[in-house]
Amino acid sequence: MSTPATAAPNAATGPVNSRGRVIVASLIGTSIEFYDFYVYATAAVLVFPALFFPNTEGIYALLSSFAVFGVAFIARPLGSILFGHFGDRNGRKGTLVASLLTMGIATFLIGCLPTAQVPGWAFWAPALLVLMRFAQGLALGGEWSGAALLATENAPANKRAIYGTFPQLGAPIGFIIANSLFLILSINLTNEQFMSWGWRIPFLASAVMVIIGLWVRLKLVETPAFQKVMDQGEVTKLPLGRMFKVSWRELILGTFIMLATYVLFYLMTTFTLSYGTAARTAEEAAAKAEATGKAFDPTTFTAGLGYARNDFLLMLIVGVVFFAIFTLVAGPLAEKFGRRKTLIAVTLGILVFGFLWVPLFGGGFAGTMLHLILGFTLMGLTFGPMGAILPELFPTNVRYTGSAVAYNFSSILGAAVAPFIAVALWQAAGGSTVLVGLYLSGAAVLTLVSLLLTKETKDVDYEGQSS
């Protein structure tokens, strides 16, 4: 049961994390994790269909690449259970260090993999790619929740939603860094150089960022809220079982609260990159295939917008700037009006945006750019409050597990299948994206129902709450 918020966690006795350290540690970790994740997402569109699935053509190679992309989302709930267990048993700090290491090692190794075109690696190259992608998902399954708790469990009174936006800001920052690096490489390398070795650089470069992130996180002390749980002897031996016993309803609601956010983001990034860079006509596609020495099958061709890869990456980066800005705007709004009211209003906006998908997307450069800006603005407004509302649904001693499982169960329903479903709907509609927009609106309806069934969590006694 919710009770009024108590004094700021910084009033707790013992060593505490400074505000600057909390902000940097929660932000840098998710920035690195999301950078690693989006490096793969971009490569899944631009590189992997040709290098790891050379025996498939056109839309089927892209679908194969997206299928591997979805493996991480199957791993994420497992990661939430694994890291959530240790986060609720042993503390937030050590668990966050372990998740960052797991993600960093997996991403670095992807950059070292031979491709399926290397003799003897036709099977093993895709298989190892799947394994590394699984490890990425496992790590991200534990990263987000830990970073959100690091921020909110150290937040002053009436500042949780604002502090909760700091780890959320890691998503647009990671996306911008990852895609900017791909853009720089694409501009400065020939297509042959980029496909031969240039694509590996973003994966290998993640090692430097991971070292920085580890240095920051190793300087942290335990959050006051979890320290209080340990001091009072309320640590749960089996957090997952306890969470399902006392918070199963909150788990279901939290999962669907996050659904529209996930669908929107992966449509706005992964799918739009596929659609935006696909040839407008079969003749263009055939000419492009001939220039790269590949066969063209007109039966698998699906029309897109025909933008050059570099041009559309730049357009996406501009759109994601709005994502970052409105993630920060969302925190004060959720603090003033409440998480529930803020998210209901934004979700209604997402529902309407789904119906406007076709009139905007494809309406020339101006229409496409407006589509990206509006979509990413809504993304920031819906993603920002998630760092507060999902953890607030759960008691302190199962908070890591509960928020992580809800967040990552939603990733299966929303993110894992979103690019795959969108590509299939795009193909089924003969090049139109009208069904893609309706798919987004349908996800928004489910999220809206969940928000209407959820109580406001703004005044939950975050430090004293236990199950």
UniProtKB/TrEMBL annotation:
PROSITE patterns: MFS (PS50850), SUGAR_TRANSPORT_1 (PS00216). It is a multi-pass membrane protein. Residues 22-458 form the Major facilitator superfamily (MFS) profile domain. Pfam families: Sugar_tr. It is found in: Cell membrane. The chain crosses the membrane at residues 59-83, 95-116, 122-140, 161-185, 197-218, 251-268, 312-331, 343-366, 372-394, 406-428, 434-453. It comes from the Bacteria. One of its GO terms (cellular component) is plasma membrane. InterPro entries: MFS_dom, MFS_sugar_transport-like, MFS_trans_sf, Sugar_transporter_CS. Keywords: Cell membrane, Membrane, Symport, Transmembrane, Transmembrane helix, Transport. GO terms for molecular function: symporter activity. Belongs to the major facilitator superfamily. Metabolite:H+ Symporter (MHS) family (TC 2.A.1.6) family. May be a proton symporter involved in the uptake of osmolytes such as proline and glycine betaine. This is Putative proline/betaine transporter. The lineage of its organism: Bacteria, Bacillati, Actinomycetota, Actinomycetes, Micrococcales.
